[in-house]
Structures are given as C-alpha cells and as structure tokens.
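Troubleshooting log. The previous run stalled partway through. Resubmitting the same three chains, unchanged.
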Amino acid sequence: MQGVNVPAGITASLQPFGIYLGVIVTFGVWSMLYRENPFYRICEFAYVGSASAHGLVTTFANTIKPGVLTNIIQNGNYWEIIPICLGCLIYFQPFRTKMWIARYPMAYWVGYNAGYALTMRTAMPLLTQIRQTMLPVIVRTANGISLVDSINNILFSLFVLFTMSYFLFSMNVYTGRYSFLLRVARVIMMVAFGAGFGTGVGTRISLLIGRLDFLFSEWLTLY
Amino acid sequence: MNNSTIWHRLAAIDSRILYLALLVMVAVPLLRPIGLPLVILDEVRDTLALIASFPEGSVVWLASEVAATNAAELRPMITAFARYLVMQNHRIIIGGFWTDGCNLARIWLDPIFEEMGAVYGVNYVNLGYRPSSTSVLDECRKDIINAYSDRDIAGRKLSEMPVMAGVTKASDIDYLVCMSPGTPGTSTYISAWRATGEVDVIIDCPTSGMYTTAGNNYQAGITKGLVGGLNGSAQVEQLIGYPGKAIRGMDAQGTGHFAILLYLIIGNIGYYQIRRMDREAKEHAGG
Amino acid sequence: MNLASMRAAVAPLFTSWLKSDSNQISLASFLLFGFFAALVIYYYRVATQSSRPLPKLRRIAGLDAIDESIGRATEMGRPVVFNPGMSSFSAPTYGALAVLSYVAKQTARYDVRLIGCFRYPEVLAVAQSTIQACYVEEGKPDAFRTDDMRYLSGDQFGFASGCVGIVQRERAAAHHMFGSLAAEALLLAEAGAAAGAIQIAGQTNNLQTPFLVAACDYCLMVEELYVASAYLTQDRLRTGMLAAQDIIKVILIALILSGTLFVTFGSTLIGDLLILY
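Second attempt completed without errors. Output:
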C-alpha cells in the first residue's frame, strides 16, 4: 500500500496498544475452542470486516489509483479506460432487470481464465513430471544391480499406475475379481495422504508456536 | 456391554482437555528449550550453495507470499533468506500477491536490511502489493516497470532506482526465492515465469503443509532449491550463523508432533478395541 | 540420438509464433495436446448423437450423499451451507459451480434454504446467476434469497472465520465444501462437525484431503470433483467429455509404461521427446 507518513512518536506510542489488542483477539479466537460465544463473535466480525476493508483500500491505492494516474493520465494509455468500463459493468449485478449487463465482464473473466489454464504453461510442469516418472525398474550400478533402488522404482511405478487408473471413471477396469485392485489403489493413496497429514500437522503446530511466541516474547517479555 | 473400560473412558475425554494438553506440550519447550538435535538436510545445503554460485550484483526476486496467518513459519524463513541474500550482495526485488505480503516484508525485513547496511533503492526495493497475480506477472514478462506503474510500495519512482538498473523484464531476473503458503505461491510463478522460460531458477520455500507438493516439483527439476517449513528455516538460520525464532521453535514443534502422534496411536488403538468389543457384545447378544 | 541433436534437428521448425510465447514449448506437447483436443471434439460429436452409446460412470459414494444431505436438511428444516472454495476462477472452482447448480436445483425443489459463502466477488456474481437460473428452472424464482449469498472476505482466514461463524450460528444441516481448499479446510470441517452437519467435501488439493477424510462424512478425492457435474446430471455431453478424458489418461499411462521400459533398457528417448522443443 502506498505509504501514509505517520510520525515515529505516534507509531511508538501505539505499539503497546497493538500488542494488547493482539492479546485480546488471540484469547477471543481461542475461546471458540471452549464453545461459540459473543467474545469470539466480536473478534470474528471485526476480523472479517477489517480484512475486507484492508483489501478494498489496498486494491484502490495499489491498482486503481496508480493505474489511472500513471498509466492513463501520465503515460496516455487511454485504451486502458476500456477494461475499466468493462469492470464497472459488474455493478449492474444488484439490479434485477439490468443484471444481464453484469454477465459480459463475467463472461470475459471466465473465458480468459479458462483459456489461460489451457495454454502450454500448464503443459510444461505436467510433461516434466511425466518424464521424471519414467524410472528404470532394474537399476544397474558399477557393482551390478542395486536391489534396494530397483524395488524402490518398481514400487514407485506401480503406485503411479494404480493411482492413475483409479481415476478412470468411465472404464470399469476394476470389476469382478479385479475389484480388490480398487481398494489397493485407495490404500496407496491413503499412505500418501498420511505423509501429507504429517507435514500438515507441522503447519498447525507452527501456527500455535507463532501465537505462543507472540504472547511470551512480545506481551509477557519472558524471553 | 461393559462401557467402563479404559478405552471407553479415553474415548469420552473432552476434546478441550486434549487442546489444553497440546498447549502445554508446545508452550513448555518454548520457555525452557530442551535442545533437540537439528539435522541439516542436503537439499537445504544445496540451495544455499546454489544461491552462493550466483555472482555479486545478481538480481533476485524475493516473492513475499506471506500473511500474518503463516508468519510463524515464513517469517523466520524470509528473514533468514533476506540476510543471506544481502550477505551475497545480490540485488533484491521484493514482490508479492498476498494482500499483506509486501507490507509484512517491510515490517520484518527493513530493520534487518538496515542492520546489515543495505540501502533502499540501491540494494533492495519493495514493489508493494498488486491484485491479480496472473496479469501482473504476465505484464512483467514484457515490462516490469509498467506492470507496477513505475511505483514502489511508497509511491517512489522505480525507474530512478539503481537497484532496477538493467532490469526491465522478467527474464532479467537471475533467480527467484519464493515463500509459498499456497496460492499465490510457487505454482503461480512456475506457470507464469518458469514454464515460459523467463526465470529458470526457482527456490521454493513452502510451509510444512505444502512441502509434499513442493517435493514433487523439486524432484522433477521444476524448482532448483527447496527449504521447507519451520524446520527448513531453522536449518538456514544455523547454516548462515544467525540463530533466530525458527531454532527456538523447533523444540516446541518436536514435542507438539509427539503429542499428536500419541493422540493418533492411542486414538486408533482405542477405536479398534471399542469396535471389537461392540462386535463381541453383539455376537453374545445374538448367540 | 541424444536430446541436444534432436533439438538441433527440430529447431528450424520453431521460429516465430511458437517461440514468441515461450522458449520452452515442446513439440511433443504440442502434438499431444492437439491429439487430445481432437479426441474431445470426437466425443463431443458422439455425445450429441443420441443413438450412439456412451460408457456408464462408476459409482461415487460422495456424490450420492449430496441428495441424502439435502433430504436431511429438509427433514430438519435447517439450511444447507455451500462453500465453493478459496480460489478465483480455476478448474476446481468450475467443478464446484457445477455441483452448486445441482445443489441449488435440489434445494429449490424441496424448499430448503441455501447459504453460499464466497471469498471472491467474481465467483459470487457467477454463482448468484447460476443459482437464480436454477430457481427459475424449478419454477420458484421468488424463493431465491440474494441475502443468503454472502461475500465474506478476500483474506483467507477472514473468509474461514466468517464461514465457521455462519455454519455454527445457522446450525447447518448439511455443509458442502467443494473447489479449491487450503489450510482453512480443517477449520471449516471442524466447525461443521461441531454443528452436527452432514459434511461432504470435494477438492483437488492433495494436502488437505487427509484432513477432510478424517473430519467429513464423505470426501471426494481429487479428480472425482470434476466428474461431479457429469455424474449428478447424467448429461450425455458431460459424460462424453469424461470418456475422452479417460482415454487421455490411458494414453498417458501407456506413455509412462513405455518410457519406464525404455529407461530400463538404457534409452531416454520417450522422456526426451516429451520435452523436446
């Protein structure tokens, strides 16, 4: 956001207030763990409101203002008025009879994004990963065949194939006596999800550490 | 059926007690560190070596894709990287597409840059937040200055800053260090700049939650460096010789993980035991 | 023949227009995706001819449960909360909107209140139009309440805390989470579980799937989200597209298998062809 010059003295005197506010909100949000209560609700509404307002102010200050002042007025890129007008059509949304007008910028937006997703830039990561999936199932080293690496690669290739074929919805490859293979594929995915769960838990614990660090170091100044 | 077995009593524990126990398990090591060993991974060592291989004056885009909600993991990470990049005397361009990203970078990093003698506009610049990562990054492929309307975070002219000398488009950037808590994140830059060949070297710094996906990209060679989560931040802090918040948090993360592991093991054993007992009770009633 | 010499051989083919967008564009990817596009067009033609048979889709329990959850909401007289994910327009969001249109039709039919939570105003606008069209189709245009389509916040956790509050306060009978979910997935699922709602999640983020598997009644895994629209509506066109996608997957599987075989015998030819430009 473009800077607002606040005198250093005011910033410093507001700092303790900010810390106390942070502490109150932290406990307010944690109170939800006990049960839904007005204290949590106040924190929730204040957060949702301030986050929306912050987004609005930031977008105006960082995009609309410099876009109009610099790009259009200063640099004379008058054609940029066209997308601005197109964007403004969205404000017809609340009017029932004129709502159809708001669909034009939406159609443009949806079309642009769908088209963007289909460009070759999405193909590159996909094809690179497919290439890296092609591993030798018999790994030869200077001393002969590496059994451990070979088993690793065989398992890797099998898991990829099972998982990919699980997502064939219109081909009933896993019917009759082969139906157990569907379960095997699911178990393989569950193992991968387990790994994801482990790392995900790391993030959750880090969030708690971050809040506790704030309480201990900035509020209670214990370290 | 006997509902007073240890497993039934454990299953009936109020989840609030479990929250409290977890809080204690995490809080105690923060106050009294227990010194659990920190293992330095090869990927972290290789990443730092890769950065060091770039000559002085190289241009790095430091993607500050951070928010207050992931600050616990990414603040130590971006801080440690900022120090290391200044130590390498690389020119740092800070950009980001999370609403708070660049503001937080200013609050967290400016004191560090000042402490290390880096000068704003000469050694580093903060571009500020812009919505719509797709169109801004696309425009940067042609003209970075225009994509940012020739203004930095405080409205100063980018074109007059020495740090931007010779940097007109994305392909002038030598490498990219990307904090990645989700989207926008590394995947955004991969499709915008890596897949289009503008920037070949991306160093991925995901949160722990994003680590498995980041690992796929790293193994496939799409990203060239990987430092993940609080653990990765602690390793960087250790390797560059500036121990900070990440190293302090590692003990707490270890004990927190231990608590979760304990819950999972006991919970699962209990679940199967209760299921077995229920089945046996049904068989008795039926037989 | 190594990669460098192959590149040298095909380099003259790529001069201006292909290379102008990217210097990493791949000949193989261009041909491959061209073939895929042709396949999709072929199945489009098959689907439009009602005399030609289309394959039957596999049963997906999570999608069958959508009707069950709306039925429960009808019995309890409590609302259905729908969350179309955290991202702006992207493939998972399109998937979520397809499910939303089905859910909206059902809620309109059974007079159940539908509450939508949105993070992006553009998604809200499209969803509003979609839902309104569904209510009109069911002959109940006045039953649609714009107030129940709520934009909460562009901030990830601002949006999440708003959703948590809505699910808890409105005592949702069913909580549907589709689209792209990130770190807030578990918070939302916990809130739904605490409110006693039937929870169905369908999203493409592998990292969040384990949390949702643990916390929801039904969880669609990854690609199952994209099947939703075809599966729920049994529409021929959508089923045809799905059949084309399945053939593409089989081709990719064959490619991986043959590549693995080649690599095992010391040749990286197939892998190299994929990134050849």
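Takeaways: The first strand of chain C starts at residue 80 and ends at 83. The radius of gyration of chain C is 22 Å.
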